[in-house]
Fold this protein.
Amino acid sequence: MANPTGLQSKSLHHVAFTTRDIEATYEFYTKKLGMRLLHAENHRQGDGYFRHFFFAMGSGEAIGFFYLENVGEKPDYKTEISMGLGLPAWANHIAFRLDTLDELEEMTTQLQGRGIEHLMRIDHGWCESIYTLDPNGIMVEFCVTTDAEEFEQTEEEALRLLRLPAEEIAEETRKEPSTAEEA
């Protein structure tokens, strides 16, 4: 179905999160994930300030972070998007695309070699992913689409499933999560 409103997004420009620890965030995204620090800026706001910085994800897309200091944040604010709201860690996350299962294996090896010990691997049927948490408690996923036909549905089928009554939802049958070491 064509976009009835006309203009639509070309791709992701950036997604932004908060951090309480600039150095840990920098270390994770540059040293562990291999992303280049792309841009940083500082802004004074009243008696406080904030820093906004970005890491290159590729294809002109970025992941950004805010470090806040006395600009209206509560003293006990949470950076753990999901867990801070009382949700499972996976409920809100960012997924980075890889193109092949070989790249997923290579990323697993690289991440383990860079000191990321807690990797979870899941085969979703239409994609295969590895997961970890960043220093801010944000789940990070690397995902390979393994069956594009299984993933893409007609809008009618997707809408039918979206509106399926709860009592008709079948029990999950996907494989249990495994650690990367088992894979």
Summary: The longest helix spans residues 101-113.
